[in-house]
Structure formats: C-alpha cells, structure tokens
Amino acid sequence: MKKEEAGYATEAIKQKVKKTLPLKLKEYRKKAGLTTYEVGAMLDKNQSTVALWETGRTIPDVPTLLKLCDIYKIADSSFFLENEPPEDLKEISKSERELIKLWRNCPDTVKAAIKTLLKNINK
C-alpha cells in the first residue's frame, strides 16, 4: 500500500469511528440500563461529558473506553466492530479477556494440552 493510500485508509477509519462510536456508546449504555448521570458517576466524570461522547462532540480516551467496556460488560472491540459480535461473545467478562490474552501468548504445545484437558473435563 502506498503512503497516500495508507493515509486515506487511516482517515476513512477515523471518520467511520467518529460516526459510529457515539451511536454505540449510547446503545450499550441503554442496554446496560444506565443513565448518562450514572455512567458519569462510575467514571468520575460529569453527565454532560458522557452526553458529549454520545453526540459525537468529543471522544473518550482509550482508558475510558476500556472502563466503559467493563461497565457495559462488552468485549473491548465491540465499539469498533462493524457488525455485532456473535451472541456468545457479546458479554465477555474481564476474567475471560484476561484468559484470551494469556491464551494468545501460549506456545502451540500448551494450547493443544489445554484443549485436550478441557475436552476431557466437558465429556
């Protein structure tokens, strides 16, 4: 990919996130049954800050997005997925995310042993 194409792709991604992120922030908050005031209190922010995120006037930083994932009980990538994740992956807990990170760093031999162990346990 040429440098200009990469810049265009990056800009296109930024524009897509800027357009969809506010909608997803609001959608996940409502699904969690929370008000902007409640979310703001959980993050030690003003209700108006949360409202600004949901209207697209400002964007939360990455650490705040990660906290929102915990609050809304969603996968870290859910804010950026074009399509909804599969039903069984919509609500990944913090401990499940930790396991995924550990899994990704395991050698293939360890992964094979873990798979065998889990298959035997679930018989």
What does this structure look like?
The protein is mainly alpha-helical. The chain folds into two domains: 3-92, lambda repressor-like DNA-binding domains (434 Repressor (Amino-terminal Domain), Orthogonal Bundle); 93-123. It contains six helices and no strands. It has helices spanning 3-31, 36-43, 47-55, 62-72, 94-104, 108-121. Helix 2 (36-43) packs across helix 3.
Q: Topology of this structure?
A:
Blueprint: H1 3-31, H2 36-43, H3 47-55, H4 62-72, H5 94-104, H6 108-121
Helix pairs in contact: 2-3
* Domains (count): 2
Proportion in helices: 55-70%
Mean residue pLDDT = 81
- Tell me the total number of β-strands: 0
The total count of helices amounts to 6
Can you give me a brief rundown of this structure?
The model has no long low-confidence stretch (mean pLDDT 81). By secondary structure, this protein is mostly helical.
